[in-house]
Design a protein that fits this description.
Layout (H helix, E strand, L loop, with lengths): L2 E5 L4 E8 L2 E9 L4 H16 L7 E5 L5 H18 L2 E5 L1 H5 L4 E7 L4 E8 L2 E2 L4 E4 L3 H7 L4 E3 L9 H10 L27
Helix pairs in contact: 1-2
């Protein structure tokens, strides 16, 4: 099985191509912005090193929580590539991609005085992803009997290899990947039409 892993949700753009034998090709760049311009060329470069796009069996993609644009970009790109190649696209949460062996609480900075958190045991979710106030992190960890907290600062980077490996272990998708948002959007619809 050949799996492409994609992450564009946080402060890095990362792509990797793996098989059961190991990593075929990978590329990663730290970036605060620019994921939109860099993702497609990076995927092209990784594929050019190893295989034709039609040889991909699965595409794993981080779907959030994380940057609004990055989550939508990664998911849209993976879904489009899956349609054009016949591969299966599988969504992987950024929280799952950051989970480590043992019982851990993964926490991402939600940038609005909140954290996006989830508890895992050896990569298996024990809780649903949720948003909590920043000042309740220690109490949240105590309530779930967690000694190890991953993030929010410093946050380890997500690697496309990890995303691809997680996608490889899945029995199949629960439907096409969709962005994972843990709070309502900041933008609001206009109360009345602006243009007539």
């Amino acid at each position: 099985m050949i799996v492409l892993g994609i992450d564009a949700c946080l402060g890095r753009c990362s792509v990797a191509l793996i098989s059961q034998e190991g990593v075929l090709a990978s590329a990663s760049e730290d970036m605060a912005r620019g994921h939109v311009e860099r993702l497609a060329p990076m995927v092209g470069e990784v594929l050019a090193e190893a295989i034709a796009p039609t040889a991909i069996d699965r595409i794993g993609v981080t779907c959030g929580p994380g940057g609004f644009t990055g989550a939508r970009l990664g998911v849209s790109f993976a879904r489009g590539l899956a349609l054009s190649t016949g591969a299966t696209a599988i969504g992987i949460s950024t929280l799952e991609a950051l989970a480590t062996p043992g019982k851990t609480l993964v926490a991402l900075d939600g940038r609005r005085g909140d954290l996006f958190v989830q508890v895992f045991a050896d990569g298996t979710p024990l809780t649903a992803p949720e948003s909590i106030p920043t000042d309740t992190l220690a109490a949240h960890a105590t309530r779930h009997a967690v000694a190890t907290i991953i993030g929010p600062d410093p946050l380890p980077p997500i690697d496309g290899v990890t995303v691809a490996r997680l996608a490889m272990t899945r029995s199949g998708p629960d439907g096409p990947p969709r962005p994972l948002y843990l709070r309502a959007p900041d933008a609001k619809a206009a109360a009345r039409p602006v243009l007539r």
